[in-house]
Specification:
By secondary structure, this protein is of the alpha/beta class. It is built from 13 helices and 9 strands. The structure holds phosphoric acid mono(formamide)ester and norvaline.
Length: about 325
């Protein structure tokens, strides 16, 4: 089961399609064990450290529960509870933590930071989200798609919204690696970095995936099996960008009219958290400020039968467990 022993998990580009497929299959096996109450304490006696420089519900809970299920000790280091980056460099932190722990999760800002941590760490480092990539999220998304549609290859996948950030980038890489047809739909300026696009196009040629960019939401969703979106303003971005994002991305909101144009049987996905109503402090503040009750997705779609966001959230835990088990 530890077929990636000693490897870091920093971005999907570092893994072959076969390795990604094996991680998804392992997650599926571990999920079945969990559901059937079959113990799987394969990492008994090991300890892991979870570094979070940004907040989290799903990722933190997934690493913690998966760690406990595998029989490990878990230490959570919150944004204020460590010396990292303030009084101690990333390189020094890596050398200290990897002398005590068997694996380190890192959520923070630039991808360079997690790469640096991994460079100086003697134990596997797992990326729990950076500005550029969110690779464990994509494993959960793909397990969910596979459970729902029975396959990944050939699925028409449409990402609506800011495609330059962690989710757009990682989903494009994931789709290229696993043979899905990826469309990013947004105004041109929100398309991913052109070097990353070139890399993905190259990969897509080998896997049979396609990569497409479309500014018209009504065209983009024709034939879509999955419509995916993310928040318009990500963690760590200044509050001033809200106005521009709302202006630019409002036409790309996932609503019923858009879902109705997709394939019959299309599903709605979102990494969460989501501003689909006014029941959050930020959603309420921004909603009132800009006169909106919903942002990237309407409450109607979020709560509809087509929405598989909570299956997707649960799968974070099973897939993160697979990543840890495979690499430890
Ligand atoms: N999807 C996701 O990463 O959620 P959290 O920010 O709650 O971890
Ligand atoms: N793009 C979002 C993803 C959250 C899981 C963010 O970085 O805040």
């Amino acid at each position: 089961m530890n077929f990636l022993k000693g490897r870091d998990f920093l971005k999907l580009l570092d893994f072959t399609s076969d390795e990604i497929g094996k991680l998804i299959d392992l997650a599926s096996e571990l999920k079945a064990k969990k559901k059937n109450g079959i113990p799987h304490r394969y990492c008994e006696g090991k300890n892991i450290a979870l570094i979070f420089e940004k907040t989290s519900t799903r990722t933190r809970s997934s690493f913690e529960v998966a760690g406990y299920d595998l029989g490990m000790g878990v230490t959570y280091l919150d944004p204020t509870g460590s010396q990292i980056g303030k009084k101690e460099s990333i390189a020094d932190t890596a050398r200290v933590l990897s002398s005590m722990y068997d694996g380190i999760e890192y959520r923070g800002y630039g991808q360079k930071i997690v790469e640096e941590l991994a460079k100086y760490s003697k134990v596997p480092v797992w990326n729990g989200l950076t500005n550029e990539f969110h690779p464990t999220q994509i494993l959960a998304d793909f397990l969910t798609i596979k459970e729902h549609f029975g396959k990944l290859k050939g699925i028409n996948f449409v990402y609506m919204g800011d495609a330059r950030y962690n989710m757009g980038n990682s989903l494009m890489v994931g789709c290229a690696k696993m043979g899905l047809n990826f469309t990013a739909c947004a105004p041109n300026k929100y398309f991913p970095d052109s070097d990353l696009v070139k890399t993905c196009e190259k990969i897509a040629k080998e896997t049979g995936a396609t990569i497409r960019f479309e500014e018209d939401p009504n065209k983009a969703v024709i034939g879509a099996d999955v419509i995916y979106t993310d928040v318009w303003v990500s963690m760590g971005e200044p509050v001033e960008v809200w106005q521009e994002r709302i202006n630019d991305l409002a036409p790309y909101q996932v609503n019923k009219a858009l879902m109705d144009k997709a394939s019959s049987g299309a599903v709605f996905m979102h990494c969460l958290p989501s501003y689909h109503d006014l029941n959050t402090a930020v959603g309420k503040e921004m909603g009132e400020k800009f006169g909106r009750t919903e942002m990237e997705v309407t409450n109607e779609v979020f709560e509809s039968k087509a929405s598989i966001v909570f299956e997707e959230a649960e799968n974070r835990m099973h897939t993160i467990k697979a990543v840890m088990l495979a690499t430890l």
